[in-house]
Amino acid sequence: MKTSILIMHQIKRIPIHKKIFNKAFASNFVECSLTIDDIPYRRTFPVIGTKLEFIASGSGTKLHEYIDHRHKQLGPVFREKLGGDADLVFVSDPLLIRTLLLNLEGKYPAHILPEPWVLYENLYGSKRGLFFMNGEEWLENRRIMNKHLLKEGSETLLEGPVKTTVRKFIQKMKYATESGTFVPNLESEFYRLSIDVIVAVILGNNSTIKPNKDCEALLTNFSESVKKIFQTTTTLYGLPLHLCQKFNLKVWRDFKESVDISLSLAHKIVGEVLSNRHHSNGLVKMLSDEKVSDENIKKIIGDFVIAAADTTAYTSLWTLFLLSNQENTKAEIRSRDKNYVNYILKESMRLYPVAPFLTRILPTESVLGSYKLIAGLYLVVKMLNISIEMFCRKHISSVHTIRKYSAICGNYYKDVNNVTPIIASIYTSGRDENNFSEAEKFLPYRWDRNDPRKKKLQNHTSFASLPFALGARSCIGKKLAILQITELISQIVDNFEFKCLNKTEIKANTSQVLVPSTDIKLEFSRFESASKDRSI
Ligand code: HEM
């Protein structure tokens, strides 16, 4: 009976979604006379523009709230210069975001990279992984990685290493709580856990390579230097980057040192596994068997370690924080199956998506909703008379670079507004009342179709929450991250009681990723009546 109601529910839902989706998609083919100039924007004083408002709102660290507020003022699509020369188009409508990521981004989706990283790459020529690649090089490598990390069945490669590593982590926490309560430095602990998980995945299940004392020290050092990359990049935001680099100021030196150390340690770790590849059955061995060159393995896998660290660490932290004062939800986790932990994670990422914004640069003239937007690259490329692929591969990495090329185009191409990065406001779409009823509340059951409590929540647009993005350039580590975090959360809840000790309100800051405004202090003690079959 329950099943048939469920199927009916699904049948009823599909056409409605399809209908709306087709409408948004079809709009890309109809004639459209509105342009970027017609997109709503905040009217303020000339020259200063919205700069003062931006600074007053908390500048970069509160960008997610500033943009959320602007969407509330101006609607789901608006444009703003945000202190730069070029207009950025912000979009929070879930159907438009979906259209952007599934239909408009082109064969080689291009995103904007953090400027300090781009400058580092340009200065020192370091070869980086998927996130930094473009054009054919990106597509070729992405296809290989998809096969191992995202396709059906890839769990087999991931499950063993993830479970073993989380189990060791829980064991360590059990020792720490043996004589009472324990307040760990969760940020550092979760950074280290994420790195241990990736290392385990690249080594594989039956690896005979055993970590020794030196290896332990190396991983701890690595974990700290990766953390420092994110901290120093954030400090550089808001400062004149090129001057900081030119005068070799401390802030630049700290950033450079953290990237130098992280990259060299990442390459050292992957290099070690490569030299022992015949004794392992992990990801590195699989790629090597597929004739992926050692150089490519080093740069792609080396970057995985960096990409995995902050994203999974902060998502785990936010999830535990949300659970810390929810005794009923913890009891539900203990009594229900693993699916429920999935809902917990979905809900936590809806409220705190570590990537609160996604960026795309349109490869061709496109219609987004009611507006016709000129290609971000196309005109520049045409003026330079080189192929779009070549341009992508060589140059496309930051707004700064595009602006430089816009300038080269001089007379033909004066208007930098033509270079229009589109920014999907993921934080806003996940917290919009039109997409999720009681949007500000942490209600994991909203993701469970069978939960009777869901009935009172009228609005539920599941694709309005896109923590891993969507489409060809979405997160390659999605399966791995979900496996790791759900395993971690269910083991922690099964084995420990925990409560939040912070007395002041914890808010979110944009520090590249969405991080807590102050250190979250959670106090752990053993949960004595842990059920036998789910505890370790
Ligand atoms: C909760 C954890 C995570 C979240 C929320 C997350 C989120 C994201 C998002 C939103 C993107 C797309 C960026 C864009 O479209 O511009 C992305 C890309 C990426 N992620 Fe993750 N990520 C997570 C964990 C991981 C892990 C564990 C890995 C390691 C394998 C990883 C590796 C990458 C890489 C390499 C890219 C770039 C892909 C490409 O450009 O083709 N991520 N991630």
Describe what you observe in this structure.
The protein has 536 residues and is an alpha+beta fold. It has 20 helices and eleven strands. A hairpin with a 7-residue loop joins β2 and β3. The longest helix has 31 residues, at 294-324. The chain is globular, with a radius of gyration of 24 Å. Residues 1-30, 378-389, 406-418 and 530-536 have low confidence and may be disordered. The protein binds protoporphyrin IX containing FE. Residues 111, 129-131, 142, 303-304, 307-308, 311-312, 315, 354-355, 358, 467-469, 473-477, 480-481 line the site of protoporphyrin IX containing FE.
End-to-end gap: 36 Å
The gross shape turns out to be: globular
Oligomer: single chain
Q: How many DSSP E strands?
A: 11
Count helical runs.
20
β-sheet strand percentage: 5-15%
Overall mean pLDDT stands at 82
Q: Radius of gyration in whole Å, from Cα? A: 24 Å
> Any ligands, ions or cofactors bound here, and which?
protoporphyrin IX containing FE
Question: Which characteristics define this entry?
Answer:
single chain, about 525 residues, alpha+beta, three-stranded mixed sheet, 20 helices, 11 strands, about 55% helix, disordered C terminus, binds protoporphyrin IX containing FE, iron ion binding, Cyt_P450_sf, monooxygenase
Topology:
Blueprint: H1 2-26, E1 34-35, H2 51-56, H3 63-74, E2 77-80, E3 88-91, H4 94-104, H5 115-124, H6 135-149, H7 155-176, H8 186-203, H9 213-236, H10 241-246, H11 250-275, H12 283-289, H13 294-324, H14 327-335, H15 339-351, E4 357-361, E5 366-368, E6 371-373, H16 378-384, H17 388-394, H18 399-408, E7 421-425, H19 426-431, H20 478-495, E8 496-500, E9 508-511, E10 513-516, E11 522-526
Parallel strand pairs: 1-6, 3-7
Antiparallel strand pairs: 2-3, 4-7, 5-6, 8-11, 9-10
Helix pairs in contact: 1-4, 7-8, 7-20, 8-9, 8-13, 9-11, 11-13, 13-15, 13-20
The structure holds protoporphyrin IX containing FE.
